[in-house]
Amino acid sequence: MRLNRLLFLFLLAAVVVPQLAAADDSDLESAVNQQFKNKVLVLLHPLGDDSLRFDVDGKPAGTGTPGPWTVYGGVLIKKIHVHSDKLQLEGQRMFFRFGSDRPIPFEFNLVKNRREPPCKPLVDIEIKLDQPLDSVDRAQTILSRVFAFSKQDFLNSVPEIWREYIGRNLNFDPAKPGELLFQPANLPDQNSKASSTLADRDENGAEIFTVGKDVKRPKPTYTPEPNYSVAGRYEKYQGVVVVSVVLDKNGYITKIAVVRPLGLGFEEQAAIAMKTWRLDPATRNGEPVAVAMNVEVAFNLY
Prior knowledge:
The chain is of the alpha+beta class and 302 residues long. It has 2 domains: 32-182, no CATH class; 208-299, TonB (TolA/TonB C-terminal domain, 2-Layer Sandwich). Helix content is 26%, strand content 31%. It contains 7 helices and 16 strands. The chain has helices at 2-36, 69-72, 136-143, 151-157, 160-169, 230-234, 266-274; strands at 40-42, 51-54, 74-82, 86-99, 102-107, 122-128, 170-172, 180-182, 208-209, 215-216, 219-222, 239-247, 253-260, 278-280, 282-284, 287-299. A hairpin with a 3-residue loop joins strand 3 (74-82) and strand 4 (86-99). It is elongated, with a radius of gyration of 25 Å. The protein starts with a helix and ends with a strand. 32% of the residues are buried.
């Protein structure tokens, strides 16, 4: 009789313990969703595929197509599923355009009769775990390896052309993980040296001047127009990107920094084209010199 009673208690425990564990997992999933559901997070590795896989350290596990953070970075979290071996996120793609000098996220949706969308509206994100989650804090740590939860992580993830602009204008609230806070700084005058990161001397130690007085403006010899952003064309968006550049004594653009962005990937398209530009250098007293100047790049649909 005693043996049968012990066997009964063992079988009862085998049934109750998994049920309690399942309840704990459900509570944890609810807590994680309460913190991150309906929040727009920005991927540290902006990828255009509709199914993204990351390892526990936040490294992409597949061969996704990288692209601009203003197109492929933003994800509106719809639902997070907590499994013993992975986190699975259902998300909505969010694009960023800039208006009134601040980024405006908006949901990307397919438009009837428009061809060649830049990506699919919904994205599935899977993050592998090395052990089951035991707390919301642990979930936040894992998510912070995939999404930008700090200003420095965000700065490290974006191309160099963005770093001065983001450094001056964007912040994160530690109490609200992943939430972008935009605090616009005063924009430089269009005719002034635009970016403080563009040094007073170039890589060869030559002084960098600004156009005016005794410094004559460089003359363009080869300045092809940039390709239109795929996302911008799909959204029928147009406008002007303003960048600051350093032009060396040989007429080559050596540094590019965003001053007034447009979003939707236009900045990257402008930089790609400008790296191929050739100009007769600026001169001072008849001698070629390096100069820093602002350049407007217009994107118009015809």
